[in-house]
């Protein structure tokens, strides 16, 4: 069927390219924000709410754009469930050991659940394993604490390159 001079195959191709564009922007925002969060977590031992809110706003903006203009392959229900599960997992760890994990890490787990869906569980597992290895080597001792966000960024890279 021709519409405005385009065939339906061309329309499908445009939709696929638009979907890929949304995915590229999403990945850029995710990794760029995680790099910034990691930097502040290392330097100041703080994860800023403004960065997390920015990530949430971008996520929902991209979801709306993808739903309105392209064939959406993002499952909002799956991602929200993943975000809640990750949040509750980290919140329980926060309650169990209040000095062991910060609320910034709890909120970060929620945001990562939105972006990664069920893949957030792999990222959490890999990052916890890396954190355990780091502390067993004697690097994480002392009252200063260990920034968690760099381990999350590293585990996201590992998951992206080796497990997908």
How is this structure best described in words?
- By secondary structure, the chain is mainly alpha-helical.
- It has one domain.
- It is built from six helices and no strands.
- The chain has helices spanning 8-44, 49-69, 76-96, 103-116, 119-136, 149-163.
- It starts with 7 loop residues before the first helix and ends with a helix.
- The relative contact order is 0.12.
Mean pLDDT: 85
Global outline: elongated
The secondary structure category is mainly alpha
Radius of gyration: 18 Å
Q: What is the string of SSEs from the N terminus onward?
A: HHHHHH
What share of residues are in beta strands? Answer: under 5%
Instruction: Determine the number of helices (DSSP H or I, runs of at least 4 residues).
Output: 6
Q: Helix share of residues?
A: over 70%
Q: What is the rounded distance between the termini?
A: 37 Å
Instruction: Outline the biggest β-sheet.
Output: none
**How many beta strands in the DSSP annotation?**
0
Number of domains: 1
Runs in which pLDDT lies below 50 for 5 or more consecutive residues are 1-14
Write the layout of secondary structure elements.
Layout (H helix, E strand, L loop, with lengths): L7 H37 L4 H21 L6 H21 L6 H14 L2 H18 L12 H15 L1
Annotation keywords:
164 residues; single chain; 6 helices; disordered N terminus
Short description:
The chain is mostly helical and 164 residues long. It has helices at residues 8-44, 49-69, 76-96, 103-116, 119-136, 149-163.
């Amino acid at each position: 069927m021709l519409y405005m001079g385009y065939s339906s195959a061309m329309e499908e191709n445009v939709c696929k390219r638009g979907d890929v564009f949304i995915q590229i922007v999403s990945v850029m925002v995710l990794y760029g924000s995680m790099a910034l969060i990691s930097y502040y977590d290392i330097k100041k031992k703080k994860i800023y709410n403004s960065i997390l809110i920015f990530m949430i706003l971008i996520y929902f903006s991209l979801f709306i754009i993808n739903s309105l203009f392209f064939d959406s392959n993002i499952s909002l229900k799956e991602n929200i469930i993943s975000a809640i599960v990750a949040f509750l997992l980290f919140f329980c760890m926060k309650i169990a050991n209040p000095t062991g994990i910060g609320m910034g890490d709890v909120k970060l787990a929620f945001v990562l659940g939105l972006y990664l869906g069920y893949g957030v569980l792999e990222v959490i597992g890999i990052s916890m394993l890396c954190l355990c290895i780091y502390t067993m080597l004697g690097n994480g001792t002392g009252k200063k604490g260990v920034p968690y966000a760099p381990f999350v960024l590293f585990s996201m890279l590992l998951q992206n390159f080796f497990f997908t």
